[in-house]
Specification:
heterodimer, A: 491 residues, mainly alpha, two-stranded antiparallel sheet, 18 helices, 74% helix, B: 75% helix
């Protein structure tokens, strides 16, 4: 990909921000807003893939933007994990753009300029998190991401939407300012550094007792990773229009959370140091608990989006477990699951939105026979479900494979069992919608004619479903990319 | 003319100009002369600051009477920094003033601006002088001018607020005077440097102890340190918007400086913090102020009162830094002194812009205003980020140092308290944002236009400064460290 332009990381982060400003200035013309959205997501995609070339060939891209206080800077550097997260966000954004345009204009929503501007800012913030070279930079973009998505969640403007959005923002800010920020300052006071270094910066500076507390503060402070009891914001965020739930609350925001968890484990604590902390097991079992309980809750949700939301809570914990197992294999599996689950879950949300647009149905119990009216959507839903469950021929198989092997390698039998039980639960809550749609007859009185959502929505969901199938074959390259973290490549 | 000879003009220019301005006719001319005077004073202060940081204190004997016999202006990093803040904020708020004052105060403005200049000259005089009695004189000059300025408010409650401030302010000034008198009684000198030399011999003298207590209480009143804050909310709420914006950034800051000067230079910390349980008392009051101020702010429906209570909380942060009695804590106090001036001025300016169009600062009247006055309310939101302490804002830098200072002294629980009050700030700022952008305009509310550029540009200038000093910290952190050093320099050691 060396033929693509190579911009500096900060420029890449700024592209969506500038796009957002342009959308806001063009607020009068909806068409212009759409055009700028397209343009921005395309420019972002090209620039992120442009950075992928050098990273794949082992270069380290670093950029110090500004030093605020001595040793405390806004700086970027790109390592494989962040590259993967940015690629995921950029690729799915360009697919979500047509979907969002189709969904928002057919759904009769207003304030589209604010919507698309905030959408773009959120993506820029996600890139900022992905490329951050130190805790402070990460914190800044993490908070931008929280705040910029609030208007999106509250977009409907109803009291219910505002209540949900308030829960959303309150929990994310509370955890990040209440736990993450003091942990960051403590880290600085103890180690004199906030920079991400492969192998961690804690060892030798912070004794395991203090390190254990720091780990708890950091991991629970990362509210976006949705560890119980701080997971409530994610179901609350489901009041948002579906394009938000799809790209942000299945990909950008939640993946930012688990990305932060992985990044902290690998680059701040270091996997070897993690093994010496008593709280690693604590976080590990809290995540295991979250994974199982969220799956059980998902089983009982009749509202399709709520079911998917709890499924996301559960799947995020897979990745947190991957980070806390302190094995490089599990960490790589966690990184891969970020990618695979991103593609799978966005497909499922796209489908849920398409179903709502075409038939105004929001409940699983209403899906009977819908496979006949919306064959493309429901097929895509099936493929997305397979990917989230982790079945071939989708990419989800490989990420879960590595996660389970990692658990086996590090000898956590309980976690291993939990992984397997949770996968069974995934089947139990993700396949019934498909079964209902294809095997049950339509309720009497409904026309049997073919009625899909607008093509602007159907094409993206078909492409992401196709993506999960392609990832089945390309999974190895993402594994190799991340294996560099532990083999000494890319700093 | 050397810089040393130029230095007293920081005070003299506004003082002399106020006499001229009082006589000027009309509305534009008095403002123009006032602005020129404030700018000149700010420029000199800016020239003095780097010299004061890098070199020993500048000492200017008035009337060539050598200190300690005559009045001496003695400028080190600490007061040069505060002087730059006061004169700079005066100049910036003046840029904002004409349009805002036009709709609040009628008739000729000569007297109004003359009083303003007197208040500025008084505050600068307090800051620069090295003579304890001179502090009292300038304090009275600035206070009397301030009471009158507050009484200019359009709301009739402004009169009561001014009267209340007059009573409390006079009590405070009297306490200061009693304290100074005790010192004079036992030492026979009023020069601060001279006092600092003589007081160590009198460590066990009860009059000296009483003097310290009186001065701290007196300045605590002017500083609005809980529970001596009662004058502040109404004074800020009902004063003309321009006066509020200026006072919020400067008056309490200067009172804090005087308190620090006495605690650290005149009495020396190894006395102040030993003879009185000062560290504990200040810490308890600071924390109480942080909580009470933020708590009450969370439930105010009047925006200016909300910001006023928030100021009480912010004073708590500064005093908390002082109470730690370390170099980092003192640096944090000075940083927040400077940064909070920028933050609160920006917030009050934004509210002033809203009031200019809607005539109200009630939260309910703000509903849905985000679309009609986007620039004004965006300015408010951005300045709000700074008061919360979001990274890349000035507020973050001062909170960062405050938290570091707490960690250094091992006071972990303070970190928790600082974070909780920051979250409270998130709440009271968020209420405004949610009302402005996520609520519908009340039925029947008039459609208003964006505030005029004459108000917006200065407001955004201060907002931009909030971000500038959140990113480029060389000036603020450098000067604050130098200021802390200057104050601690005379102290032999810390308890």
């Amino acid at each position: 990909m060396s033929w693509l332009p190579q911009l500096s990381p900060f420029t890449v982060v700024l592209i969506p921000m500038v796009g957002a400003a342009a959308i806001a200035l063009a607020a009068r013309s909806t068409r212009a807003g759409f055009a700028i959205s397209w343009l921005t997501s395309a420019a972002f995609l090209v620039s992120v893939w442009g950075l992928a070339g050098p990273v794949l060939s082992g270069d380290v891209i670093e950029q110090a933007v500004w030093e605020i206080l001595p040793g405390m800077a806004i700086a970027f550097s790109i390592e494989p994990l962040g590259m993967l997260f940015a690629l995921l966000a950029a690729t799915l954004w360009i697919l979500a753009t047509p979907y969002a345009i189709g969904y928002m204009s057919h759904g009769g929503y207003s304030s589209l300029a604010r919507f698309f501007a905030c959408y773009a800012i959120a993506l820029g913030a996600a890139a900022g998190i992905a490329f951050a070279d130190n805790l402070l930079t990460m914190f800044v973009f993490y908070e931008i991401l929280s705040v910029s998505t609030y208007p999106l969640v509250a977009h409907d403007g109803t009291d219910k939407a505002k209540r949900g959005a308030r829960t959303y923002l309150a929990l994310l800010l509370l955890t990040s300012i209440g736990f993450w920020l003091p942990a960051m300052i403590w880290t600085w006071a103890a180690t004199g550094s906030m920079t991400f270094v492969s192998g961690g910066i804690m060892a030798g500076h912070v004794d395991p007792a203090a390190g254990s507390i720091l780990l708890v503060l950091f991991l629970f402070g990362t509210g976006k990773a949705a560890l119980m009891p701080f997971h409530r914001w994610l179901p609350a965020a489901m009041v948002a229009p579906t394009p938000v739930s799809a790209l942000l609350h299945a990909v950008a925001v939640v993946k930012a959370g688990v990305f932060v968890a992985l990044k902290l484990a690998i680059y701040i604590f270091g996997l070897d140091y993690l093994k010496t902390l008593w709280s690693t097991d604590l976080v590990l079992y809290v995540a295991t608990f979250t994974m199982l309980v969220a799956s059980l809750v998902a089983l009982h949700q009749d509202n399709l989006k709520a079911r998917l939301a709890y499924s996301t809570v559960s799947q995020l914990s897979y990745i947190v477990i991957g980070a806390m197992l302190a094995s490089s294999l599990a960490a790589i599996g966690g990184g891969m699951h970020m990618l695979m689950h991103g593609f799978g879950k966005i497909t499922l949300f796209f489908c849920a939105g398409a179903i709502y647009l075409a038939s105004k149905k929001t409940r699983v119990s209403e899906l009977d026979g819908l496979g006949r009216r919306m064959p493309i959507t429901m097929t895509a839903f099936f493929i997305g479900a397979l990917c989230v469950i982790g079945l071939p021929p989708t990419g989800g198989l490989w990420s879960k494979w590595h996660l389970v092997s990692g658990a086996y390698d590090s000898g956590y039998a309980l976690v291993l069992a939990a992984y397997l039980i949770s996968t069974l639960l995934n089947i139990a809550y993700l396949l019934p919608p498909v079964v209902r749609a294809f095997l049950k007859p339509l309720p009497s009185g409904e026309s049997t004619g073919f009625k899909e959502a607008p093509w602007l929505c159907v094409i993206p969901l078909s492409l992401t479903a196709l993506g999960t199938l392609v990832l089945f074959f390309l999974a190895q390259s993402s594994f190799e990319l991340m294996a560099r973290i532990f083999s000494g490549g890319n700093g | 003319m050397t810089l040393l000879e130029l230095m007293p003009f920081i005070v003299l220019i506004p003082l002399i100009a106020s006499g001229i301005v009082a006589l000027l006719p009309g509305r534009i001319l008095p403002w123009l002369v006032t602005l020129i005077a404030a700018l000149a004073s700010a420029v000199i202060a800016a020239l003095v600051l780097p010299v004061a940081i890098s070199e020993p204190p500048l000492s200017y004997p008035f009337g060539n009477w050598p200190p300690p016999f005559g009045i001496e202006y003695r400028v080190d990093a600490a007061n040069a920094f505060v002087a730059l803040l006061v004169s700079g904020m005066a100049a910036i708020t003046l840029l904002w003033a004409p349009k805002r004052v036009a709709s609040e105060i009628h008739g000729r403005l000569g007297t109004f601006y003359a009083l303003f200049l007197l208040a500025v000259a008084g505050l600068l005089g307090i800051t620069l002088t090295g003579d304890a009695f001179n502090v009292f004189v300038f304090l009275e000059i600035s206070s009397l001018a301030t009471y009158t300025l507050i009484a200019y408010g359009k709301d009739r409650r402004a009169l009561l607020a001014a009267f209340r401030y007059l009573i409390m302010g006079t009590v405070g000034a009297t306490f200061l005077l009693i304290g100074i008198a005790f010192l004079y009684m036992v030492t026979g000198t009023l020069n601060m440097a001279d006092l600092a030399e003589r007081l160590p011999e009198l460590r066990d003298n009860n009059a000296v102890r009483a003097a310290l207590a009186f001065i701290i209480v007196g300045m605590g009143l002017k500083l609005a340190l809980l529970p001596l804050h009662l004058w502040l909310p109404n004074a800020y709420a009902y004063a003309p918007n321009f006066v509020t914006a200026f006072l919020a950034g400067t008056a309490t800051k200067v009172a804090l400086y005087v308190m620090l000067r006495f605690i650290f230079t005149v009495f020396a910390p190894d006395y102040s913090f030993v003879v009185l349980p000062l560290s504990t008392v200040l810490m308890v009051l600071a924390v109480a102020g942080m909580f009470a101020g933020s708590w009450v702010a969370m439930f105010q429906i009047h925006l200016k009162r909300m910001l006023a209570y928030s100021s009480i909380a912010q004073v708590g942060y500064m005093v908390l830094g002082v109470s730690l009695a370390t170099a980092t804590g003192l640096t944090a106090a000075f940083l927040h002194l400077f940064n909070h001036a920028l933050i609160k001025t920006a917030l009050f300016m934004a509210v002033g812009c809203v009031m200019y169009r809607t005539g109200s600062a009630k939260l309910d009247d703000l509903r849905g205003l985000g679309r009609q006055m986007p620039w004004t309310l965006t300015a408010f939101a951005l300045a709000g980020l700074s008061i919360i302490g979001v990274p890349t804002t000035a507020g973050f830098i001062s909170k960062w140092y405050l938290v570091l200072a707490s960690i250094e002294t091992g006071a972990w629980w303070l970190v928790v308290l600082i974070l909780i009050t920051s979250l409270m700030a998130v709440y009271y700022i968020w209420r405004v944002i949610e009302a402005a952008w996520f609520s519908d305009r009340p039925a029947g509310a008039a459609v208003v236009r964006e505030a005029p550029l004459a108000l917006l540009v200065p407001t955004w200038l201060v907002v931009a400064l909030n971000f500038y000093f959140g990113i480029d910290t060389r000036l603020t952190v450098g000067a604050s460290m130098a200021a802390a050093d200057a104050l601690l320099g005379s102290g032999v050691g810390l308890p």
